[in-house]
Amino acid sequence: MNAVLDTHVRLAIEKVEREAWFDMYAAAPDDYIQNSKLSSARLGTSIALADHGTPIAEFNRVLGIGIDEPASEAELEQAIAWLNEHASPSYALQVAPTALPEAVWTWIEARGLKRAGNGWAKHYRDAVPTEEHPIPTALEVIRLEPHHAADFGHVAQAGFGLPLPIGAWLSALVGRPKWNVYVAYEGPTPVACGAMFIDHGWAWLGVDATLSDYRGRGAQNALIKRRLTDGIAAGVVGFTAETGQPPEGQEELNKSYCNYVRAGFKKAYVRPNYVSNG
C-alpha cells in the first residue's frame, strides 16, 4: 500500500464508520430517544453521540476530528463541551493517529483528557474474493427482511449484554437504506448477528454479537464471510471494522480481533480513547 493509497484508505475507513454510527442514531425510535436521552450531532466534520441508557464509550463519544480537514482548538472545545452536556460521564474522545494538525494531541491533554486503555484497532480489507474458513459452521446465515428484525435486535442486545430496550433500536436497522443486516440461526433459533453499512463504495462491518451458549462455533466467521461476499457483489472497494486492541503479544486471546485477521483484514492503526479525569 503506497503512501497516497494509505492516506486515502485511512480517510475512507474513518468516514464510513462515522456515517454508519450517525445513521444508526438517526434510526432510533422516538420512545427510545426520549427514555434513553439519545442524541447525536455533527460538529464540523466530526460527529457526537450520546446515550445515557447505554453508558459506555461506544455509545457516548466524538469521532472524526481532524480527518476531512485539520481540526482547530475551537472545534475541540466544542466537542468536549457537547460531551459534557449531552453524554454519559463514561464518554470518550476518539482521534485517529492521522488527525491533523499534530498539535491536536497537545490540545487534548491540555484540557485534562487522558489516554485510556489500549484503544481500538481499526482493521481494513480490500475487495479480494473471500476464502473458505477451515472449520465450516453448521449455522445458517440469513440476510434479514423487516419481518424478522426483532431477531437481530434480540441477539445484539443479549450477545453484548446491553440494556433490554436497545433491542428495539437496533432492530430498526433492518431494511434501512445502506444497511445489510444478518443473523446466524441454529434451526429456528437466532444465535449470532452482524451488520454492514455501505456508503460511497466503502463498507463498515459492526454489531457483531453471539449468544454466550453458541460461541466458538464459527458464527462470526460465517457472518464476516457473508458480508464480504455480499459487499463485493454490491461493488464495495474496501471494508473496515474495529475491535479492542489487545495487549501486545496477546492478540490471539481476543476472539473478535482474530476473526477479522483470519478473514484477511489487516490492522491499519490503533485509535486511542481520551477520557475525562472527572
TrEMBL record:
- Give residue ranges for domain N-acetyltransferase: 139-278
Q: Which residues form a coiled coil?
A: none
Q: Which domain of life is it from?
A: Bacteria
Residues making up the signal peptide according to the UniProt record: none
Q: Which SUPFAM superfamilies match?
A: Acyl-CoA N-acyltransferases (Nat)
The record's listing under InterPro entries reads:
Acyl_CoA_acyltransferase (IPR016181), GNAT_dom (IPR000182)
User: What Gene3D superfamilies is this protein classified in?
Assistant: 3.40.630.30
Protein name, entry field: N-acetyltransferase domain-containing protein
Q: Which organism is it from?
A: Paenibacillus glycinis
